[in-house]
Amino acid sequence: MLYTAVTAALILDNDRVLLAQRKSGAQQSLKWEFPGGKLEAGETPEECLAREIKEELDIDIQVKEIFTAVAHSYGDRNILLLAYLCRRTGGTPSPRDCNDFQWVSLNSLLKYDLAEADLPIAIKLMGERCHHA
Ligand SMILES: Nc1nc2c([nH]c(=O)n2[C@H]2C[C@H](O)[C@@H](COP(=O)(O)OP(=O)(O)OP(=O)(O)O)O2)c(=O)[nH]1
Ligand SMILES: [Mg+2]
């Protein structure tokens, strides 16, 4: 089965990161994730992220570098999750196309019911933070 390319934004503000809660009824219903979405035809990951974050949370971001890539199988679906370090450049988040959002401190990340594919990303993010602290 092909792996679908999905982008995820790690929007950092000091020691906090912006998590979004997926809508009920959708895949991974009500799980928390790093917001983003599927790549569309002709779009770069950076363009995809800027579009998705505007659609889902109504904020503007600057996409910096790739942080990690995770290939994950949900059994019926395979995703290649591309996680980028990002910074909010404008706007105040509002849950436009997600159920909820929350700025979460890195040491509280694992208290959230994260989508399975996000666990390695969360763990790496927490590790890097310790390293630089
Ligand atoms: N954006 C995003 N998707 C994730 C994460 N973790 C994770 O398992 N996924 C899965 C959930 C979905 O099965 C898949 C695609 O994400 P999506 O539903 O956000 O795609 P999209 O925004 O383009 O929405 P749609 O047009 O398909 O409705 O990736 C994550 O951290 N961020
Ligand atoms: Mg999405």
From TrEMBL:
Binding site for 8-oxo-dGTP: R22, E33, F34, P35, G36
GO annotation, biological process: DNA repair; DNA replication
Keyword DNA repair: yes
Enzyme class at the top of the EC tree: hydrolase
Residue ranges of the TM segments: none
Requisite cofactors: Mg(2+)
InterPro entries: Mutator_MutT, MutT-like, Nudix_hydrolase, NUDIX_hydrolase-like_dom_sf, NUDIX_hydrolase_CS, NUDIX_hydrolase_dom
Reactions this protein catalyses: 8-oxo-dGTP + H2O = 8-oxo-dGMP + diphosphate + H(+)
CDD domains, sorted: NUDIX_MutT_NudA_like
Domain Nudix hydrolase: 2-127
EC number, UniProt record: 3.6.1.55
Name recorded for this polypeptide: 8-oxo-dGTP diphosphatase
Protein source organism: Desulfocucumis palustris
Lineage summary: Bacteria, Bacillati, Bacillota, Clostridia, Eubacteriales
